[in-house]
Amino acid sequence: MLWRARVSLWGCEARNRDQRPWPAGCGWIMDRMPTGKRDFDKEAAVWDENPARIKLAHDIGSAISDHVPLDTAMNVLDFGCGTGLLTLRLAPLVGSVTGVDSSRGMLEVLEAKIAAQNAANVRALLIDLDAGDTLTGNYDVITSSMTFHHMEKIASVLNQFHRCLVPGGYLCIADLDLEDGGFHGDREGVFHFGFDRALLHMALVEAGFDRIMFTTAAEVVKSNSHGETRKFPVFLMTAQRGERPEPAGP
Ligand SMILES: C[S@@+](CC[C@H](N)C(=O)[O-])C[C@H]1O[C@@H](n2cnc3c(N)ncnc32)[C@H](O)[C@@H]1O
User: Which of 15, 91, 124, 233 has a CA 20 to 30 Å removed from the CA of 247?
Assistant: First the structure.
């Protein structure tokens, strides 16, 4: 296995090979380097054929509605919405949901579902933050399910979320707890082997979020070709947009 070093732009994600965090501010990460952006267009047509993904979106939706007081006046942005498994789970509970994704193929599947279900309060938006696009709008809630480990520059994404939330608005991120890389058979486009909750907490504070809470929302069970099963816990982090910390003085 080829191990290489790469520079991380988010100090908080730094890990050594044993998955222990490097000292704060150290920007080196020893990971198996992803070779580029994953082509989700290729996976879009069969994405929903995996029952584990349907269950995961259902469990994450339940955890969000348990922890955030959703109501039908709220406008929600679902970042990295994919085929809209979480987007459409939340739609009946809120005023509107905008599903944002960088994969045209994923969004085409979502658009077909919007039409089939006559889900008039849901729209699909093509935005690629890696390509320099920016999020716009004012949302009461931003959700993101299983997308953060595909985002290289976490701090920049959190800053965009902060800017697009109304004061007191809710951020809900569901993703893998720290793992050893075994979750993905193909690690193309995987920038994080899950997240350390304490370090993600620090990044959220830095971006101006408060009332940060973590809960375990779900568990993904995977079997390998030898019949061995592994369990991967998935956290739900909820936070609210607070004031951004003042920059340090001279
Ligand atoms: C693992 S899928 C999760 C999809 C969906 N949330 C779910 O739980 O089924 C990650 C999604 O993030 C999207 N994505 C990856 N990088 C992105 C970026 N830079 N901007 C917007 N979406 C991105 C991918 O296209 C993909 O649909």
Answer: 15
Write down the pLDDT at residue 38: 86
Yes or no: say if 147 and 74 are a contact pair by the CB < 8 Å rule. Answer: no
Q: How far is the CA of 157 from the centre of ligand 1 (A)?
A: 13
d(CA 113, CA 133): 25
Q: How far is the CA of 225 from the centre of ligand 1 (A)?
A: 27
pLDDT at residue 249, rounded to an integer:
65
Q: How many domains does the chain have?
A: 1
Q: Which atom of ligand 1 is closest in space to residue 82's alpha carbon?
A: 27
Q: Is 26 among the domain residues?
A: no
| Residue 250 pLDDT grade (very low, low, confident, very high; cuts 50, 70, 90) | low
CA–CA separation, 28 vs 22, rounded Å? 8
The reply to whether 16 falls in a domain is no
Cβ atoms of residues 239 and 212 within 8 Å:
yes
Around ligand 1, the residues with Cβ closer than 6 Å are 40, 53, 57, 80-82, 85-86, 101-103, 106, 127-130, 145-147, 150
Structural domain range at position 208: 37-241
Asked if residue 10 is part of any domain, the answer here is no
Give the pLDDT score at 2: 30
Distance (Å) from CA 146 to ligand 1 centroid: 7
How confident is the model at residue 224, as a pLDDT?
78
pLDDT at res. 28: 32
Is pTM beyond 0.85? Reply is yes
Nearest-CA residue for ligand 1 atom 24 is 80
Mean of pLDDT values over 131-145: 96
Tell whether 207 is covered by a domain.
yes
